[in-house]
Each structure stands twice: as structure tokens, then as C-alpha cells.
Design a protein that fits this description.
Elements lengths: L10 E3 L30 E4 L10 E8 L5 E2 L4 E10 L3 E2 L9 E2 L4 E4 L2
Parallel strand pairs: 1-2, 2-3, 3-5, 4-7, 5-8
Antiparallel strand pairs: 5-6
């Protein structure tokens, strides 16, 4: 096992089926068979549509933004321990105007 990996890592896909905005509302994440939970340490977050609001400092393994998806940091910090993929500019740790991430304050920490 790789150090820092999560044996129970899950892939969550945003569908906004709960309140349509809150990261921690499990019904916003299309996780087959459960309807609950949200991405946390070791997990993957896929955001193909909508604009979840982070709401607090969080750590996840992988963030994939595609389609019309965006992410609102809400002044918080998102730490990504593995990969960040954005269909608008590809894989990597560089951010530009195509990142589809909004913030007033906050940071994305990308390591790996």
C-alpha cells in the first residue's frame, strides 16, 4: 500500500440532486446505491456540471472538472493530494483563467 492512500477511497460525481450547492450534502453527489456521503480525504470528486460550494477546508485525492462544472472555494482551502484534471486545460498543477474555480479568498494546494 502506498503511504497516505485510502483503502476505502470512493469516486463521487456531482449531480446537484440535493440542495444543488453544498459540498457536504450527500444527495448532491451521485454515489450509486447510497445517496449519501461526499468526497473527503483519499476520494475522487468529479464535477461535470453545477457549481458546488466547498464550505470548509477540505482534502481529497483527485479533482476532475469537466463539461460545465465549476468549483466555488467559498474562501476555503482545497488540498489535492494526487491529480487535478480540468477538461479545459488538461492535467497538471497550473491554474489559469480556464480553471473553472471561483474564490474570494482561499487556496488550492496541489501535491504529488
Amino acid at each position: 500500500m502506498v503511504a497516505g492512500s485510502n483503502a476505502y477511497a470512493t469516486t463521487y460525481t456531482w449531480d446537484g440532486g440535493g440542495d444543488g450547492s453544498t459540498w457536504t450534502n450527500g444527495k448532491n453527489w451521485g454515489l450509486p446505491g447510497t445517496g449519501s456521503g461526499h468526497p473527503s480525504t483519499g476520494d475522487t470528486a468529479n464535477i461535470p456540471t453545477g457549481a458546488p460550494i466547498l464550505g470548509a477546508n477540505r482534502t481529497i485525492a483527485t479533482l476532475n472538472i469537466s463539461g460545465t462544472g465549476t468549483l466555488n472555494l467559498g474562501g476555503n482551502t482545497l488540498t489535492i493530494t494526487s491529480d487535478y484534471l480540468n477538461s479545459f486545460f488538461g492535467l497538471g498543477n497550473s491554474f489559469n483563467r480556464y480553471a473553472n474555480i471561483t474564490r474570494t479568498t482561499g487556496v488550492i494546494n496541489a501535491a504529488g
